[in-house]
Amino acid sequence: MRRLVNIRPGPGSRVFLGAAPLALAALAYLVASAARHAENPSDKLLPPLSAMWAAWRRMAMEVDPVTGAVPLVADTLASLARLGLGLGISTGATLVLGLVLGLLPIVRASLGPLVAAIAVIPPIAILPVLFIALGLGETSKVALIVLGITPFMVRDLASQVSAIPEEQRVKAQTLGASTWQIALRLALPQAMPKLIKGLRLSLGPAWVFLIAAEAIASDVGLGYRIFLVRRYLAMDVILPYVAWISLLAVMMDVTLAWISRRFFPWDHAKGAE
Amino acid sequence: MSDPILSLRDVWVEYGDKIVLEKVSLDIAPGSFVSIVGPSGAGKSTFLRLIIGQEAPTRGHILLDGAPLTPEPGPERGVVFQRYSVFPHLTAIDNVAFGLDCAGSMFLGRLYGRRRKAALEEAGHMLEKVGLAHSRDVYPAQLSGGMQQRLAIAQALVRKPRILLLDEPFGALDPGIRLDMHGLIDELWREHGLTILMVTHDIKEAFKLGDRVLAFDKRRHDPHAPHRFGSSAVYDFPLTGKNRRPPAEILALASREPVVA
After folding, report:
1. What number of other Cβ atoms are within 10 A of residue B61's Cβ?
2. What are A237-256's pLDDT values in tens digits?
3. Could you tell me the residue ranges of all domains in chain A?
4. ipTM of this predicted complex?
5. For residue range A128-165, what is the model confidence (pLDDT) as tens digits?
6. Which CATH class is domain A74-265?
7. Which of B77, B80, B84, B108 to mutate against chain A (most A CBs within 10 Å)?
8. Which of A39, A80, A141, A158 could cysteine-pair with A213, CB 3.0–4.6 Å?
């Protein structure tokens, strides 16, 4: 009898093993939903697929007469604009701060403790501060995302940059590189794939902060919508919205992974080491 | 003998009350190939770090071509480390062209147009010399250890350094590959009239390649406070074509237990 730790699934059974739990979960949902509806046809907690499809059509394909827009489209555009702006600002700030913190000991000595102090503040706890200081508009929502993910990303990138072997920094100097040239030709290109990795890890928290901000003060957005229809126990709207949000998150992650492989192949072809 | 290219005058290196190097005074003649051996912890690496400029002496002076050495790495001293010498994000040819880019373009750090073409041509010649002409567009991770060291040598030579410093350059290579590399470095040394300082663990390698061997060790030893005495060059052998056999005292030095500080 072979040991359990030595049994590896082949490619075919790997697909089956991966799909089985998902299929089982879906099946369990359908069975439970059907059972509840047999007992109470107006049950709202576990809507059947037909009800979710009807809600999806209403939200995603029909124009809302009050606002004159398709709710799902308006919500998605509003949320993605906030998320994109927040992620863009965070990424730009991270690139600059991470590079100087990782590369220049003098900056690390002066700004490192500040970044570390900011990083321990739970971002949601300062959401009221943001609302008071910046108002209830778009700025405070974007600011929450930026404050929520930037400290982690900066610290991650700074540690990655300072982990570039000293040999490489010395070698660059023996080839005549100045501080600026080391930053531009050595640290920046090696930081880019690490930055993308940090951004991918920060996508989850960024969505959390976006939805939290939208749930509290907003009039459009994916988070706003699911918290709005919660008042009517509208699970038939909430569940498709959650699925849609997950799909958006996965697509962003896959796109970033593709960008990293496409533009920084040397970071992925680690055969020799 | 012509003026020394590198002189150390009564150089000491101390970390707190620990003395690593004491009273090192040396002259290195231009065109020489100096091998540096010694047991672990005898300050070979510290000596090399001094010359690279990663460290400054606590006392004493280091002169390069008669002028005091700035304690910072610079293009007049090329270096090849045992590992991590090449840039993983650049192809072989760009790794070699890096030095030319830095020299020719202060703000962009990269040459364009005709000047880039000239730089690539020069880098290409360098790659050819180390036998990597066929791997010019390959990333270092796809090269074997020996090929990466060849690349590191080409990269270091493109700025035509006054001195080439080698820090156990072949230590991580298989014996067969190491032999090839000995041939390569010997050829480059003769062909370009390089001045080379090589730190190595391998006594045979030191005596085979060098035309002078320095052995670092502590002159004095206090068993109760081993850190209170530093090392210096205790043996200094000029080698000619005939005497290539390591003397007994050097072999004894190599087989000794490392000094625990």
Report:
1. 13
2. 999 999 999 999 999 999 99
3. 74-265
4. 0.88
5. 999 999 988 899 999 999 999 999 999 999 999 999 99
6. mainly alpha
7. B84
8. A141
